[in-house]
Write a structure and sequence with these properties.
By secondary structure, this protein is an alpha/beta fold. It folds into 3 domains: 151 residues, Rossmann fold (3-Layer(aba) Sandwich); 31 residues, no CATH class; 117 residues. The strands form 4 sheets. Strands 3-6-9-2-10 form a 5-stranded parallel β-sheet, sandwiched between helices. A hairpin with a 3-residue loop joins strand 7 and strand 8. The longest helix is centred in the N-terminal third of the chain and has 13 residues. It is elongated and about 80 Å long. The relative contact order is 0.17.
């Protein structure tokens, strides 16, 4: 069966507005990448550090396009039974027992035992066999083995899966496929050639303030500016895990609920809240009250190199969906 005709692709500006309404502040580069992926039916490969918002774009695309989201979390040792399909051995065994007891036709059983009726579809097969297009997230593909990466080549180039007992299962619809990588190992050139690529970085200070104003509007103002500036400086420290945008949003929500209009002068007042930003024992241990105080008392926003102009643009656009060409981050943060 040939793939069904996909729904019309929104123009880039309309797609950007939809992503914004779905809670993702996307710049022109990333919204253009999504538009190209939809237009060409090509997968997207998003690479970058953990926490920059790679995973969130898949969820935002699903909401913006009104499609279901299917997620495959990659890990070492991932195999076809977990990612693509496996046979329902329990049901097959039951059918065999029924046939032996005279409740079925053994001849028919030989023809149907390895049919789609006994096939358990996993995320990759579910995505291409879905009657309507979906969004397929293949998360942290760099954690999977090279053998599994090689299998992806057939699916990503032809959107089909070969099951030895059944033959080739072609796609009923073409999913919007998003692959993410944290760069823990190099991906093959063959996989990269099949994808549209973007490297996602942490947002600039101006962009992150705009994200906070959009997603936590009740905390807009001095608290948002000072808290984001603190997180930006914190990311320059020698941390095991840099806080992502999701951590920034959580921390600002906590500070707002505690009644802070800005960062408190006493760094000890911040200590209990830093659990939202620092996610390893070593990071919490090394960030002493003295270091927190230095980060709080760091350069004012207008003194940070290259920030004053961008921040002015962000203030002008505070109520505008157009976030400009800087880095792209959304509501979910994520890997």
């Amino acid at each position: 069966m040939s793939p069904l005709a996909d729904p019309p692709v929104p123009d880039p500006d309309a797609l950007r507005r939809r992503l914004f309404e779905a809670g993702y502040v996307a710049g022109e580069e990333l919204s253009g990448l999504v538009w190209m992926a939809l237009t060409l039916s090509r997968p997207m490969l998003l690479e970058g550090e953990a926490g920059v918002g790679k995973t969130a774009i898949a969820a935002a695309c699903a909401r913006a396009l009104g499609r279901p989201l299917l997620r495959l979390q990659c890990h070492e040792g991932l195999d076809l039974a977990q990612a693509v399909y496996e046979w329902n051995y329990g049901r097959q065994l039951l059918e065999i027992r029924l046939a032996e007891a005279g409740h079925g036709n053994e001849g028919d059983l030989r023809d149907t035992l390895f049919s789609e009726r006994f096939l358990l579809e996993r995320p990759l097969l579910q995505a291409i066999r879905s009657p309507a297009p979906c969004v397929l997230l293949i998360d942290e593909v760099d954690r999977a083995d090279e053998a599994f990466e090689a299998f992806l080549l057939e699916m990503l180039s032809e959107y089909q899966v070969t099951v030895p007992e059944l033959g080739t299962l072609a796609a009923r619809s073409t999913p919007l496929t998003v692959l993410t990588s944290n760069g823990t190992r190099d991906l093959s050139d063959a996989l990269r050639r099949r994808c549209l690529f973007s490297y996602i970085e942490f947002p600039t200070l101006a962009r992150e303030i705009e994200i906070v104003r959009t997603l936590v509007p009740e905390a807009a103002g001095r608290l948002a500016e000072e808290a984001v500036a603190f997180v930006q400086r914190l990311r320059r420290e020698d941390l095991d895990k840099k806080p992502g945008v999701a951590e920034t949003l959580d921390w600002i929500r906590i500070l707002f609920r505690l009644g802070h209009a800005g960062l408190p002068d006493d760094p000890r007042a911040l200590a209990p809240t830093l659990a939202a930003l620092l996610k390893t024992r070593n990071d919490q241990w090394q960030l002493t009250p003295e270091r927190v105080g230095r980060l709080v008392d760091g350069p004012r926003i207008a003194q940070d190199t290259g920030v004053a102009k961008d921040l002015g643009v962000a203030k002008v656009r505070a109520g505008d969906m157009d976030p400009g060409p800087a880095a792209d981050l959304g509501a979910g943060g994520g890997a």
